[in-house]
Amino acid sequence: MLNTAYPIKTERLLLRPFAERDLDDVFAFQSREDVTRYLYWNPRDREEVAEVLKEWMAVPPMDVDGQSLALAAELRESSRVIGSLFLFQRSVEHRQGEIGFVFNPAYQGRGLATEGSAELLRLGFEALNLHRLCGRCDARNQASAKLMERLGMRPEAHLIQNERVKGEWTDELVFAILAEEWWAGAGGRG
């Protein structure tokens, strides 16, 4: 069960559950074609973002398969939400989870998504006692692939044309890291 105090503070970010006040900031990046290019959904209008935000505001205990935690990545210097981070409980029995992330391109290239995603790994391994965390991305999305590699995740699979996304066949990359690897590396801080 996830028992964490919010906000979670990193050097430059506050990670916290989403709130209604985040609508404008989230709409600013979820409405962009370049943000949704490699995702399952198209750019969202304000009403769609408001609906998604309602779902994301719930903070599940993460003790049942299929639950997901959505966290706002708030830039400490401006109090703006610049991204969304996700931790999925894939299997309680097998202690398997998955991470995901979507950030506003205006804040890319500064290591902020890596900083926030590193906290997802910490939550998964420390707070949920997971054995393995994975992450997936469209094979064309090299920025996401490189981010997962920076987190210490290793490439495990390159699935060829495994699904249709927005009317075209796409390849998918799968990355993963085991708890023992994370604890042994910089993530576990010794």
Task: Describe the protein's architecture and organization.
With 190 residues, this protein is an alpha+beta fold. The chain has a domain at 8-132: Aminopeptidase (3-Layer(aba) Sandwich). Helices cover 28% and strands 34% of the residues. The chain has six helices and eight strands. An eight-stranded mixed β-sheet has the order 1-2-3-4-5-6-8-7, with helices on both faces. α1 (23-30) packs across α3 (46-56). The longest helix has 16 residues, at 112-127. The chain is globular, with a radius of gyration of 16 Å.
Features:
eight-stranded mixed β-sheet; 28% helix; 190 residues; alpha+beta
Mean pLDDT: 96
Q: How many extended strands?
A: 8
Shape: globular
Strand composition percent:
25-35%
Instruction: Spell out the CATH superfamily of the domain at 8-132.
Output: Gcn5-related N-acetyltransferase (GNAT)
CATH topology of the domain at 8-132: Aminopeptidase
Q: How helix-rich are the residues, as a percent range?
A: 25-40%
Q: How many helical stretches?
A: 6
Order of helices and strands: EEHHHEEEHEHEEH
pLDDT < 50 runs, ≥5 residues? none
Rg from alpha-carbon coordinates:
16 Å
Q: Helix- and strand-based class? A: alpha+beta
Largest sheet: 8 strands, mixed
CATH-level-2 architecture of the domain at 8-132: 3-Layer(aba) Sandwich
Write out the strand line-up for the largest beta sheet, numbering strands in chain order: 1-2-3-4-5-6-8-7
CATH class identity of the domain at 8-132 = Alpha Beta
How far apart lie the N and C ends? 24 Å
Q: Give the oligomeric state.
A: single chain
